[in-house]
Amino acid sequence: MKLTILKNELNDAIGHVSKAISSRTTIPILTGIKIEATYQGLTLTASDTDISIQSFIPIDKDNETIIQVTKAGSIVLPAKFFIEIIKKLPSQNIEIEVNDSFQISIRSGSSDIQMVGMDPEEFPILPRIEENHVLSVPGDLLKTMVRQTGFAVSTNESTPVLTGILWKMAEGSLKLLATDRHRLATREAAIEADSDLNFNNIVISGKTLNELSKIIPDQNTLVDIVVADNQVLFKIDNVLFYSRILDGTYPDTSKIIPQVYKTELVLRTKAFTDAIDRAYLLSREEKTNIVKLITQDEKNVEISSSSSELGKFTEQLEVETMTGEELKISFNSKYMLDVLKVIDSEFIHIGFTGAMSPIIIKPNDHVNSLYLILPYRTTN
Amino acid sequence: MKLTILKNELNDAIGHVSKAISSRTTIPILTGIKIEATYQGLTLTASDTDISIQSFIPIDKDNETIIQVTKAGSIVLPAKFFIEIIKKLPSQNIEIEVNDSFQISIRSGSSDIQMVGMDPEEFPILPRIEENHVLSVPGDLLKTMVRQTGFAVSTNESTPVLTGILWKMAEGSLKLLATDRHRLATREAAIEADSDLNFNNIVISGKTLNELSKIIPDQNTLVDIVVADNQVLFKIDNVLFYSRILDGTYPDTSKIIPQVYKTELVLRTKAFTDAIDRAYLLSREEKTNIVKLITQDEKNVEISSSSSELGKFTEQLEVETMTGEELKISFNSKYMLDVLKVIDSEFIHIGFTGAMSPIIIKPNDHVNSLYLILPYRTTN
């Protein structure tokens, strides 16, 4: 293998695939990035077995030559050092040469690095995925959907399926759902796809989707999603992002969402967030994060919290509208803040079905998202 | 105690004194901030016994009323919660009321916080310092002097005096010096002070001076420094910063600085920094950070490093001027980078007195700072 390549382009590709490198892996070959040169371009691959990412750099782009390949070939390089040294090379032009015994030279300006790489034959081969079922989602929408649900996944590895986000596709609508048994978040959106494309029980790790979000550029990009038996492939420009589908059956949550409410509030999102945030400061001293909400009259609710160590907090908050019964309810303020942080609307609607029933929070201006928090059972 | 105060002013003062709160203290009263209201203003005090900081808020500033004191008094409040809740209060106006049993109410907008404070009598009394010896140093100069020496203090608590920076004042010149036995940094500056103000062996913790630097504003501020028997007081506007002087005799380092060189190099600071930074990447894999510098001819030096795991790095670097003998020397690249980071000049001068003698680095355009690194003894 012998080639020259522009530093910035190599850096960008390294930045993409580096998301799949785990520092905790015990398999030596997976601490490396595989680079493979053909006369069409350079392919970088990294994998931690859960995620695999491949980034392709074409030999030219917009009439600019990016790579000149003199000899095709491949090698696996230790990722940590490779990532950092490429960033710091003195010149925009980088020359890479590999001999038959995996000896590699990297030259740039008057810098010269001599390394020993690893055998590319040892690197895991990425799965072939048949592209029968493809859906296309705008990148910024996909990032929003992941952000608006991912916070609710479980961090408890004892039920692996709950550490993931459930993906459902039916009748041209994609729905993401996450729950850790104490709270639930869903987000839905109409998506361009074959009308016969339906799936259910596709669960992808929340952490993985968070890494995926970091790779999706902010500007308009369409992400093609290919769903296979045990893998999902996300295609973003020249990057292929493979994720394992989590094993297990996702619990049916449809029955826990109440359809009628006994008390309904419309609140200004910012004012409610700020009040809960203040109440949270005291509540977290007790680890439980308990905050109490009590309806006062048609115009006000009282938000309060207390800590045996520090004291107590009370605030009167004006509501936009209130309908239904009087209410006294306790909930985890941290869970409420997590929901409020991902709601971009000016007003929110909160529906209650009694002090022991799930609390439902929705943005007031559309029906695409729904958040649920279970209340605390308290003695008064 | 009863008063109203503007949130921003209270926040700023809390921000200053909070630097003296240690999260590791076992003395309950020191987890608090003491607030004391008089009809002149509000004084906040915090202390971790090594550092004590006092910030005074006058009742008015620039014809604006900041505080209205209805009743004088004092209280100690739990710092962590107090710092955060004040920041998050809904209104610019804050009302604070304390009764005789240390019950405190904080009200702002429709928020109401009820807390129990601690007895201010239990809070340590700050030392009275006689202001016989005062020197005034411009704030930005003081920050620079601390930055240019503080990195070289020892982190090994077994010789406490070396964790500090040595302050010397003689003939109108202030000199700061730090060493951890492997390297040394000094910075000198002419200072306005009484001509008879001389001191030596004043050693102040590097960490403490780092905290002090964070309090000094960026714009032109004069810091008055009062040196007493076992304390130094720094006065910055309305903030008093007390620091303990470290016990022990600082070692005499004057004899280890060579006065003549066998080899001298002038190098472009940025180019040398970048080359050492690249070499460092490989060298740190061996934990020793060894980088080798070899003079090539009158125009070039070779910088190299190696790692048994990864490989080796070599770079040719053009020098501005070179005089004296040929040289082959090894040193800790991390120590060299630490020096290069604090040198603001375009060119540096490096003096060598042989492969086993201290390396002296100076900015090429002034004589106010000097850095020393001991070389490594290597076999070839």
UniProtKB/TrEMBL annotation, chains A, B:
Coarse class of the protein's main subcellular location: cytoplasm
Annotated localization: Cytoplasm
Origin: domain of life: Bacteria
Protein name per Swiss-Prot or TrEMBL: Beta sliding clamp
Pfam families: DNA_pol3_beta, DNA_pol3_beta_2, DNA_pol3_beta_3
Annotated ranges, domain DNA polymerase III beta sliding clamp C-terminal: 255-377
Sequence similarity: Belongs to the beta sliding clamp family.
Keyword Transferase: yes
Keyword vocabulary terms for this entry: Cytoplasm, DNA replication, DNA-binding, DNA-directed DNA polymerase, Nucleotidyltransferase, Transferase
InterPro entries the record matches: DNA_clamp_sf (IPR046938), DNA_polIII_beta (IPR001001), DNA_polIII_beta_C (IPR022635), DNA_polIII_beta_cen (IPR022637), DNA_polIII_beta_N (IPR022634)
Alphabetical GO biological process terms: DNA strand elongation involved in DNA replication
Function field: Confers DNA tethering and processivity to DNA polymerases and other proteins. Acts as a clamp, forming a ring around DNA (a reaction catalyzed by the clamp-loading complex) which diffuses in an ATP-independent manner freely and bidirectionally along dsDNA. Initially characterized for its ability to contact the catalytic subunit of DNA polymerase III (Pol III), a complex, multichain enzyme responsible for most of the replicative synthesis in bacteria; Pol III exhibits 3'-5' exonuclease proofreading activity.
Record-level Gene Ontology MF annotations: 3'-5' exonuclease activity; DNA binding; DNA-directed DNA polymerase activity
Subunit (UniProt): Forms a ring-shaped head-to-tail homodimer around DNA.
Record's keyword annotation contains Glycoprotein: no
Species in which this protein is naturally found: Paenibacillus swuensis
DNA polymerase III beta sliding clamp central domain boundaries: 137-252
Domain called DNA polymerase III beta sliding clamp N-terminal: residue spans: 1-127
GO CC annotation, single: DNA polymerase III complex
SUPFAM superfamilies given in the database record: DNA clamp (SSF55979)
